[in-house]
Amino acid sequence: MNQNIVAIDGPAGSGKSTVAREVGAQIGYSYVDTGSYYRAFTLFFHKIYKKENPTIPFSEWIKNKNLENEISKISIQTEFLSGGTNKTILNSEDVSEEIRLPEVTEEIKYLAPLRIVRDFVNQCLHDLGDKYKLIMDGRDIGTEVFPDAKFKFFVTASIDTRAERRFQELVEKGVNVDLDQLKEDIAKRDKSDMERKIAPLRMADDAILIDTTQLSKNVVINMILSKILQS
Fold it and tell me: Which of 1, 42, 145, 160 is the one with CA 20 to 30 A from 178?
């Protein structure tokens, strides 16, 4: 059993990342945004796509790429900073901002579900796990990436709650957004995550379920801390 890993899985918008950062800071574990690895992988090919400037959409272009030949050219690392933050390094370059580009967000769905991509990212995460005590959130951390993790949590909330939380975040940033559309988008994302053939979203048999629908962030953090510190 791997005591150096805390796995927090759950659907989009359930508050996993916020909770993971806070818990990690309090127990001395480094937080890893696993999604940044898929974003960095996508960015690598996005840059090639832009350079080649093809006339076909990225979704069609990527199908003709031999990922196995290109993957040896990719190095993705995490540089840990104070306060639970970190940088994403792609081939020695800080791409922490670039991986958040709308184009990358749109294109990631064509790469993240592929087995070759997931195997690559999983190996990167295992390499980190060999060096550090980590807390990470995702969809398959406790089921696929670190099934031997001693600490596993599945954090979720109702679609209405997750949409309302996201709505408030965007409003505070000055973004004009429709709440009903957010609910629809989250429902679609849930369906896609749960029905994908490779590493679908599901709760590990030995994970602790935490429904945050009626819970504050601090309550959730204390619940997770309590379970870890009692072990």
Answer: 42
